[in-house]
Amino acid sequence: QEGGPLAGRRVLITAGGTREPLDPVRYLGNRSSGKQGLALADAARSAGAQVTLIAGSMEQQPGPELACIEVVSVGTTEQMHAAVMSRAEQADALIMSAAVADFRPADYAHTKIKKSDNGASPIITLERNPDILAETVARRNHRGTGPKVIVGFAAETGDEKSDPLELAQLKLQRKGCELLVLNRVGENLVFGLDSTEIHILASDAAQQQLQGFEPDHVIGSKREAAALVIQRLHQ
Ligand code: C5P
Predict the structure, then answer these.
(1) EC number(s) per UniProt (predicted)?
(2) Model-level pTM?
(3) Does ipTM top 0.90?
């Protein structure tokens, strides 16, 4: 697309979930459908950006409208990490909408794990995955090159003790990104649906750049939410 507010800008977007293999037939995964990431890719493309989508496991494949975007398919968090790291430096904006597994099985079994004869259940030991978002922010800040705007996502259920907005504010500070999109998630909320509820929070520095920034709250379609996030990239 010619013109548009993001013409000539490169936007890197991660979407879907990561899968951490346990053995050749099993993995640890999550319920991310990739719909929000696809909507973001579509909105960025409509705004004229050159879009690269790093796609983990997705319920839905990119439709024909996304034929002109580059799609890089990945499985594990390690693969997503490598795909983002090798492209982030050239990107003007990075949007980490993927649901990245925080942990992976410490050991991969090269043959299918069997039920043991004595009835004992296997114990799966986990180890930490790299935090792609935090690492990209740290590298950009250290080198002084890379995406000017980095957008993180936070999927929070909240509970009696913690307010999701407060959790998101803490996460925004901890990750050091410019914008954080809070998703209210739960058994019957958000995952796989076309509707969503988001808040967009901005860091203090980003608020100074974005004139008149007010935290946004949208209850609507993932398409509407995506349009608002993309609008924040070119404000
Ligand atoms: O820490 P938490 O998983 O809640 O943070 C969510 C945000 O961080 C999302 O934007 C997600 O894509 C990103 N993330 C990441 N690497 C991880 C875990 C999360 O980039 N290992």
Answers:
(1) 4.1.1.36, 6.3.2.5
(2) 0.94
(3) yes
